[in-house]
Backbone:
């Protein structure tokens, strides 16, 4: 599927999920850390919570993972992002997900608004 077709069909729920990812990426780039312990722990937590989420929503099988690849990927990537985000911003004075530096929050919000603007434009053009 091409990107324009995908974006033209995005539901509100998916736009919100993409917005979460954009916020994560902006802040993670600003506060990036090469500490392998942080990334390894985040990966481990992602796998453990992923398995729990898979088990709580159905069976944990290769068939399910293969047929519902993106759903399975989201069930892993969300806890991975939450864990790594917490590790990256620890000690920087964040309140929830918000940076104490207003410009960083504005940058993240701007990136999300740009994404939403692109999606809405594509939706309008494709009718």
Residues:
């Amino acid at each position: 599927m091409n990107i324009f077709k995908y974006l033209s069909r995005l539901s509100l729920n998916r736009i919100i999920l993409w917005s979460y990812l954009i916020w994560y990426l902006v802040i993670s780039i600003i506060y990036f850390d090469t500490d392998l312990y942080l990334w390894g722990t985040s990966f481990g937590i992602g796998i453990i919570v992923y398995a729990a989420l898979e088990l709580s929503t159905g069976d944990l099988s290769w068939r399910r993972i293969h047929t519902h690849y993106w759903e399975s990927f989201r069930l892993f990537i969300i806890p991975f992002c939450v864990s790594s985000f917490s590790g990256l911003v620890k000690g920087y004075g964040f309140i929830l997900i918000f940076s104490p530096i207003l410009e960083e929050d504005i940058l993240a919000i701007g990136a999300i608004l740009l994404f939403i603007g692109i999606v809405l434009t594509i939706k309008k053009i494709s009718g």
